Amino acid sequence: MTNPITNLNTLIAEMEPVLNPGEYVFVTLKTIDHIPRDITICEMKEKEGTTLVLLKNEANKLGLSYDYICAWITLNIHSALEAVGLTAAFATALGANDISCNVIAGYYHDHIFVDFADKEKAMAVLNELSNTKTS
């Protein structure tokens, strides 16, 4: 395992965005006891219910409703949880290109969910951002 990185310039220059295959959705449920845990990408408990991120076809199999189909991009760099500015940098770049993003930070990587129709454009923006820090 690599050591987590805190330097913003390094994080941006070496973030290596990777587009994960598939279509993903966010669903919210009052109880998730009936949901197989091996199909969820992420779970977030909120007072209104638990939000799950999972593949669209898994949500369809379970008859779950959703209204947002997204693509999942992983930044393939071990960003430190205490790193400052990475989320702001890529969210600003995506926003300047009219791409909304939903961000989830795991222990090792940052994960960005963008509208499925914007996936290629988002990858181009992220790669351009990364390339401007390497020059």
Structural class by helix and strand composition? alpha+beta
Order of helices and strands: HEEEHEHEEH
**Fold-level CATH name:** VC0802-like
Determine the CATH superfamily. Answer: VC0802-like
Short description:
The chain has 135 residues and is α+β, with helices and mostly antiparallel strands. The protein contains four helices and six strands; from the N terminus they run αβββαβαββα.
Notes on the structure:
The chain has 135 residues and is an alpha+beta fold. The chain has a single domain, classed as VC0802-like (2-Layer Sandwich). Helix content is 29%, strand content 33%. A six-stranded antiparallel β-sheet has the order 2-3-1-4-6-5.
Topology overview:
Layout: H1 8-13, E1 17-29, E2 40-46, E3 49-55, H2 56-61, E4 69-75, H3 86-96, E5 101-105, E6 110-115, H4 119-134
Antiparallel strand pairs: 1-3, 1-4, 2-3, 4-6, 5-6
What tags apply to this protein structure?
single chain; 135 residues; alpha+beta; VC0802-like; six-stranded antiparallel β-sheet; 4 helices; 29% helix; 33% strand
